[in-house]
Design a protein that fits this description.
Layout (H helix, E strand, L loop, with lengths): L1 E7 L5 E4 L12 E11 L2 E11 L5 E5 L5 E3 L3 E4 L1 E4 L5 E8 L2 E6 L3 E4 H4 L2 E11 L2 E4 L3 E6 L13 H9 L21 H13 L22 H9 L21 H13 L23 H9 L21 H11 L6
Helix pairs in contact: 2-7, 3-4, 3-5, 5-6
């Protein structure tokens, strides 16, 4: 009985041997078709199977999604993929200026706090006995994160950091410090925000005298509430008796009025509404002129598109309030 063993490479490499167990060296990686033909006097039979030939040298194939910005103290996981003859060694190198940090493993976990603020250039290095390769560089910035619940990836992070740096907020909870970005803003909180934005955080309003029947002089925001009343920014929420409703959440319609009066003065009156700015704000709506003026000044872009909406009856969140304050009073980041 005679044996014929032949190999046919996908890139055109061919060879054959009559040995029963030949040694074959492929000149390139890829999927190769290997055929075994066995013959005797009764005929021949052939079996063909693909053989994947790996490149022995290491290749960094990809680096997983890496956030462009993280907060100081956040943990970042680096994960990549590579090919080559095992075993493969993975190293992540992060460089900032003249200093560098190496993390071993895949995935590798990085605690950004010891490294500090700044922008880092990173790369994945993969090594085996046949060589060393590295991925394309990536950058990651470690930024200040004052509040534990507001990382730099949060849409209103910069605005919230800005009003904190300006002294307009100290958050909603301490140890750890939280801002509560999705919580609704109360009318009392709005008064405090507006007084600080209008007059500066060094301004101290006079002691409260009890203007509103539902705001005791000992209430924490009473001086600020009475200050915006004195400035003509608010007339309260009800009369007979005069009330302010300090714990009531503030709607986006009410916010438009208060914010524009705080910006332009208590006597300010916006132009008449057209009813064409937002699909959910008709010209006859009580706050329509204020809402359209808020958009005209670039302070709001609405709450939704297709069609453009403002959501006037929805409550203002603390994250939205930070954004509105920054735009209305041109507050710059720290």
């Amino acid at each position: 009985m005679g044996l014929l063993f032949s190999t046919v490479a996908a890139v055109g490499q061919t060879g054959s041997s009559t040995l029963s167990n030949p040694t074959v060296v492929f000149s390139s990686p890829g999927v190769k078709q290997v055929s075994l033909t066995v013959c005797n006097d009764a005929g021949c039979d052939t079996v063909t199977k693909p053989v994947t030939v790996l490149d022995p040298k290491p290749h960094a194939l990809s680096v997983g999604s890496i956030p462009p910005m993280v907060g100081l103290g956040e943990l970042v996981s680096f994960l990549g993929s590579a090919a080559g003859r095992p075993p493969l060694t993975y190293r992540w190198v992060l460089t900032k200026g003249a200093s560098s940090l190496t993390l071993n493993g895949n995935p590798a976990l990085w605690d950004s706090k010891p490294s500090g603020l700044g922008t880092y250039t990173g790369r994945l290095e993969v090594q085996n006995n046949n060589g060393l390769t590295q991925s394309s560089p990536f950058t990651i910035t470690v930024a200040k994160m004052t509040f534990a619940d507001v990382p730099p990836s949060y849409w209103a992070w910069e605005a919230i950091e800005t009003i904190y740096a300006r002294g307009l907020t100290s958050g909603c909870f301490s140890d750890p410090l939280y801002y509560c970005p999705i919580a609704s803003v109360t009318r009392a909180e709005m008064a405090s925000f507006l007084v600080g934005a209008m007059k500066g955080t060094s301004f101290v309003p006079p002691p409260a005298v009890g203007v509103f029947s539902d705001v005791a002089t000992s209430f924490w925001a009473a001086p600020s509430i009475e200050q915006i009343f004195a400035d003509g920014i608010t007339s309260g929420c009800a009369v007979s008796p005069l009330r302010y409703c300090p714990e009531t959440p503030l709607t986006r319609a009410e916010m438009a009025v208060l914010l524009l009066r705080a910006k332009h003065g208590g006597a300010y009156v916006p132009p008449p509404a057209t009813g064409t700015q937002f699909s959910d704000v008709v010209s006859s709506y009580w706050a329509a002129p204020w809402i359209e003026q808020l958009a005209a000044e670039g302070i709001t872009g609405g709450c939704g598109t297709s069609p453009l909406r403002y959501c006037p009856e929805e409550n203002v969140t603390r994250a939205q309030m930070a954004s509105f304050l920054v735009r209305a009073f041109n507050l710059t980041p720290p």
